[in-house]
Design brief:
The structure is a homotrimer of 362-residue chains. Chain A is α/β, with parallel strands linked by helices and 362 residues long. Chain A has 13 helices and 11 strands. The first copy, chain A, folds into 2 domains: 7-172 and 335-357, 3-Layer(aba) Sandwich (Rossmann fold), CATH 3.40.50; 174-333, Rossmann fold, CATH 3.40.50. In chain A, the strands form 3 sheets. The first copy, chain A, has a 5-stranded parallel β-sheet, covered by helices on one side. A 4-stranded parallel β-sheet of chain A has the order 4-3-5-6, with helices on both faces. In chain A, strands 1-2 form a two-stranded antiparallel ribbon. In chain A, strand 8 (224-228), helix 9 (237-245) and strand 9 form a beta-alpha-beta unit. In chain A, helix 2 (44-60) packs across helix 7, helix 4 (88-100) crosses helix 12 (328-346) and helix 7 crosses helix 8. Chains in contact: A-B, A-C, B-C. The interface between A and B is medium-sized, with 27 and 30 residues.
Chain lengths: 362, 362, 362
């Protein structure tokens, strides 16, 4: 991997080619993820299948019998959820996803606590931990580390799939999957995602969710992407260039009021001031202009949806939570369901789930 | 909830009325807890039923077949045990109680560890976490926060029951339940709690366990309550006024030796110096006069019981642990059993347990 | 226990005698561990049985049906893994071992976090925690504390077995068991451990793994032990005296190159500078002379094995990991399997496992 380009710079077709004919970093078959490292590795076909699977799981889980069916699928597996960077919400979502499939989760918060670890390489630490488990779910502040471990473990006697649960400012592929799934669900009876207008608002410069979702949306036909925020927080040029290269229609603007009525989905984000170069630099921005308040609701299409990756600060008034178009709380739960779908796919029990669903729910 | 009186100022009858006709904060049916927030919400009838259920569970759990029956009751449920204030013993007791019923527990120790949480409201944090779970067990230093979340979640699409595992100096209802259950068990063949004399000793001014147990004991007939300690640590006036209002016989004294021979139960407590207004102020008190030593045992009724909510310091000599009347170690386990009973009742599997018990043990 | 000698100073025969006729600290029957406290408590017969059991478990766990059989053995039990000294690898190994047998684990990282614990004795803390569990797995920095708790709990109404997961510089018996099991596996088809030459390299003065493994190897016939390192890190005299007393052949040397070709097993260890009396004192040593590099591989027997208790620093080049004789990664997993075997034996389900193995695998 030392001489290879980072995965994020590689297209999905190239990735597939790289993987062909050897135990690669991403797929165990050409159409199925093994490691889940970057948003770009998912084709539209995969996204559709994951979404269908998540919906099946969600409905199956409503009954006790269904829950037991799911919990029997992978009850012989153990997962390590290794978060060297804290994130309770992502952690709990994966923890619950494992439990739903019967996988026994173990938590490792920080390897660095142990004095005897001093001097051990991070690769050795993770490989040691991986010895006890069948799945690694990793969150690290180090860009590229999950990839590196995926290559390393794929080349040992005992490969273990790795799911990237967020690596620095870089990648958080399951967040992107849950956003896509939320859009799939929202437009299920409205022709799907194709042809919709998605408005991104807030800190578009530093939010990795915006970057990943924008990329995955290019898998859909005729989706218009609008980036609406203060110019100092606008989306980076490389995101726009990617859209241009793929012929995707997009718009860059600072006029939130004008964007609201045209949106099929509004994707709000908070200011990520933890990435400020000078402490407090984001504090000078007037973000109230890019906040959603009760007065916008009247302008919003009845069929539109309001999303937010959470946590929120003031970008969305609490009073809006009761509006049926506000789906960010459901979005949280979608994250759990899509993670179940992803893990089920990694372990090849997706067909069993769809079969059960057909027999009992369709 | 902003304009409402805090629940602790409201009588049980009033609470029931408040709840009638809507999805209230406490009950899903008039006779059954939904949220478990305060000790006062439990009537004698409920306490008796919980005690019987705890005993059934305790006996069923002795066999492997019984354990498996219990673990199959709620194996489709997941609980979040959210302790923003550390308490390993209460945490483990709830953790074990969940495991006994097959509920898969997840732990959240402190939401504040994550930098990305900064600026999120505590309500949003807990609501996010609740998305992945079917039960929230919460311990917070903030008085009233569990109540607030109970109201909030009861008014969403996806209500989740909340069990208060201790909120500040305020309420710790399951501790009160376990104390009552310990008395129920101890006097099972001696006519029950009615007519007994309970002697409270130690830090009666600041111990919330004393306050709650004193309150719950008013549900029983002819129970005499004695508060024996240094005058500076005596029970607050509002507790005594409550007893007076209900016509309960009580006694306030500083003479421990005189109280011992008359006690059916002695409830020892430690000095809670973590609540000292000036650091070290409790250090000046001579608590050795309110400590139980081997010499008291001869004066104690053969049928009496010695309780302590633990942790203890010097109030009870370790040598006393072997006296059969010392039941504080059993009291610890009773906490686990009564929590199982409570959770089983919240999820309406109490009848199934009693049925199994009747068929297999009676 | 106050007047008794520490267990580590007592021979196994003496221990058995002490235990005869009463609920002792180590055995519930003469041939079976109850508490697992020190490496010396294991006879060769026990080591052989544990090794056979570990192998059976390892093979049974390969299939889903087998995993389910194992997970049904002790699914009515709960374990507390109480690590007041951090060690993620040992923790995870025990956690996974419990999960394999269906035991529900709970984690206690540090009892000291809770302010209300202040003033409670460590014995009360552990006894309280033990109330909720059927097995305690303890790691403490305090030498002898696990032993003390074993005696204390053995003399209560509710004894609970204790497994010592490492106590200070003192004892780490399951590490010794996993090292023996690794040697058993490695020489399975080469006549077993009897007659082999084991070369210990590195920090032999302070590594408790070396001390314990050296002791357990005396159970085998004609094993030659070589201690190869810088004289300032050589093995303590009491270890050598023990070997002398038992008539075991040993060698003390500083010539690594000479030792390599004669070794059947090389047991590498890292410098344990966390025990340095003056910070940095180990830094002055040139340990590169006692590091394994690619150039040694040519000198090493084809049938030899390279072991390391991990974590490693520079003692073994990463490039060596791919050599089939490098078995330290397998050694990590052996730790999990031997812990499963130990716990299964404590709870008397070993015969059931061997029966299943005979029916399905032999």
């Amino acid at each position: 991997m030392k001489d290879a380009r980072p995965l994020r710079d590689i297209t999905w077709n190239e990735l597939q080619e790289m993987d062909a004919g050897r135990k690669g970093p991403l797929f165990n078959r050409h159409d199925r993820p093994y490691h889940c490292l970057i948003a770009q590795q998912f084709s539209r076909e995969m996204l559709d299948r994951l979404g269908d699977l998540a919906t099946a799981v969600r409905r199956i889980a409503k009954s006790k019998a269904g829950s037991r069916f799911l919990a029997g699928l992978l009850d012989h597996k153990r997962a390590m959820i290794y978060f060297s960077q804290p994130s309770s919400r992502t952690f709990l979502s994966f923890y619950a996803a494992c439990q739903i499939l019967g996988i026994k989760p173990s938590e490792v918060r920080d390897a660095a606590t142990s004095s005897e670890m001093k001097g051990e390489s991070p690769e050795d630490t993770v490989r040691t931990f991986s010895s006890y488990f069948d799945l690694l779910i990793m969150r690290t502040p180090k860009q590229g580390f999950a990839e590196k471990m995926a290559w390393l473990l794929s080349n040992t006697d005992r490969p273990v799939p790795i799911i990237n649960a967020g690596s620095g400012k870089d990648q958080h592929p399951t967040q992107a999957l849950l956003d896509i799934y939320t859009l799939q669900r929202s437009f299920e009876r409205a022709g799907g995602i194709d042809g919709k207008t998605v408005v991104f608002v807030g800190d578009l410069a530093r939010g990795r969710t915006v970057r990943s979702l924008s990329c995955l949306l290019t898998n859909y036909r005729d989706v218009r992407q609008c980036f609406v925020t203060d110019p100092r927080l606008q989306v980076p040029d490389d995101v726009l260039e990617q859209l241009k290269a793929k012929g995707v229609e997009y718009e860059v603007s600072d006029d939130f009021a004008a964007a609201v009525p045209r949106a099929d989905a509004i994707y709000m984000t908070r200011i990520q001031d933890e990435w400020d170069k000078t402490p407090g630099e984001s504090g000078h921005l007037d973000i109230s202009r890019y906040s959603l308040t009760a007065k916008h609701l009247a302008q919003l299409k009845m069929t539109a949806v309001l999303m937010h990756p959470l946590p929120r600060r003031g970008e969305i008034e609490v009073a809006i939570d009761r509006d049926p178009r506000a789906i960010y709380w459901r979005q949280v739960r979608n994250g759990m369901w899509i993670r179940v779908a992803l893990i089920a796919t990694v372990f090849n029990v997706d067909a069993q789930i769809l079969e059960y669903y057909k027999l009992n729910h369709a």
